[in-house]
Design a protein that fits this description.
The protein is α/β, with parallel strands linked by helices. It folds into two domains: 16-47 and 287-381, Aspartate Aminotransferase, domain 1; 53-285, Aspartate Aminotransferase, domain 2 (3-Layer(aba) Sandwich). It contains 15 helices and 13 strands. Strand 7 (197-201), helix 9 and strand 8 form a beta-alpha-beta unit. The longest helix is centred in the last third of the chain and has 20 residues, at 288-307. The chain is globular, with a radius of gyration of 21 Å.
């Protein structure tokens, strides 16, 4: 049997042990964690919607109408009117014919890969894709091939060398640990030329990017017909929970019939769908949140450049500072915590060896003074 105690001890020795902090308040620019009020620079709640009063009210109303649970899977009796309405509204918002709700982004990615590919097929993924995409490729039974980060030329070579079976390209829209963006138009052109499916996981772009919040496709001026499979999560910029896949009618109906991670799980609570419907309206109507977020990004990047920080090139709310080894990143995170700033140290295997980092995330509801505070603190740990 595996010696679990020894393996845990080894993780601690190599500064790779992970511990959970206990949050005691709602998400916000400041958060109570382990009894301390901290400035929150590690949340994916980019637009500050996780504690928005209108969204809270919709959630409570949903509980009063539907109760706390859905009771069954979508294909049994768990598919409520709230779920159905949200799917229609997500389709309209994204510009796709139909959308399908999943309980999590992880389950959506697993469902897509398993439904469309199996043994004899091939899935192609960016080397820095999120773990859920990589796991989806591995668990599908198809052959998983990885191409160099953002390299559409290498992808084309790998696709052209494959002359049998289905070909599915899966890529993050915004890469969760680097904050940079996939070249979606280039990927779409390659996929069309090589008769391959293209799937974009826009977990960190949806809501936060684009003039209207429609995500990476809007930000990069990519039409929906060039990306046949679009997945995004609802627990980040939208401040709720779950995920959805958008595509044409045949794709969505096929996923309903064949995606195991959709069929064989209890539907999420209808109240969550009601809250998400309210959140989607806020995303559409309150564009000032994205503008405010962009101002914070500009402010932070200017300050980081003046400090000479090793900031990765990112135009999104994810602003990673690469420090190198795990111990250095962990020490920096602890020093910032002592100054009242909550920033997670990201270490291998989440990121490649030698690229441990502080993953700083900015929010629309941060104050300029809080970002000044962050920069001042970083100057002392750099």
């Amino acid at each position: 049997m595996k010696n679990l105690h020894a393996e845990l001890a080894q993780r601690k020795q190599h500064k790779l042990y992970r511990s959970r902090r206990v949050s005691e308040s709602a998400q916000g620019p400041e958060i109570m964690v382990d009894g301390r009020k901290l400035v929150n620079f590690c949340s994916n709640d980019y637009l500050g919607l996780a504690n928005h009063p209108a969204i809270r009210k919709a959630f409570i109303s949903g509980v009063e109408k539907y109760g706390t649970g859905s009771g069954a899977a979508h294909l049994v009796n768990g598919h409520s009117a709230a779920h159905h309405a949200l799917e229609a509204e997500l389709a309209e918002f994204t510009g796709y014919p139909k959308a399908l709700l999943f309980s999590t982004g992880y389950m959506a990615n697993l469902g897509i890969a398993q439904a469309l590919c199996s043994r004899g097929d091939a899935i192609f993924e960016d080397r820095l894709n999120h773990a859920s995409l990589l796991d989806a490729g591995l668990l599908s039974g198809a052959r998983l091939q990885r191409y160099q980060h953002l390299n559409a030329v290498e992808l084309e070579k790998k696709l052209s060398a494959r002359d049998k079976g289905e070909k599915l390209v899966m890529s993050d829209g915004v890469f969760s640990m680097d904050g940079d963006a996939a070249p979606i138009n280039q990927l779409a052109t390659v996929c069309q030329q090589q008769d391959a499916w293209l799937m974009i996981d826009d977990a960190h772009g949806f809501g936060a990017l684009g003039e209207n919040g429609r995500g990476s496709l809007e930000q990069q001026n990519v039409s929906t017909d060039r990306v046949p499979i679009y997945m995004a999560t609802l627990g980040k910029a939208l401040g709720c929970a779950g995920a959805f896949v958008a595509g044409d009618e045949d794709l969505i109906e096929y996923l309903i019939q064949t995606a195991r991670s959709y069929i064989y799980t209890t539907a999420s609570p209808p109240a969550v769908a009601e809250a998400t419907r309210a959140s989607l309206k806020v995303v559409a109507e309150e564009s000032w949140r994205r503008k405010k977020l962009q101002q914070h990004i500009d402010q932070f990047q200017q300050g980081a450049q003046q400090l000479g920080l090793n900031l990765l090139p990112s135009a999104t709310a994810i602003q990673p500072i690469v420090l190198g080894d795990a111990e250095t990143a962990l020490t920096a995170s602890q020093k910032l915590l002592q100054q009242g700033l909550l920033i997670t140290a990201i270490r291998p295997p989440t990121v490649p060896e030698g690229t441990a980092r502080l993953r700083i995330t900015l929010r629309a509801d941060h104050q300029t003074e809080q970002i000044d505070q962050l920069l001042e603190a970083l100057s002392t740990v750099n």
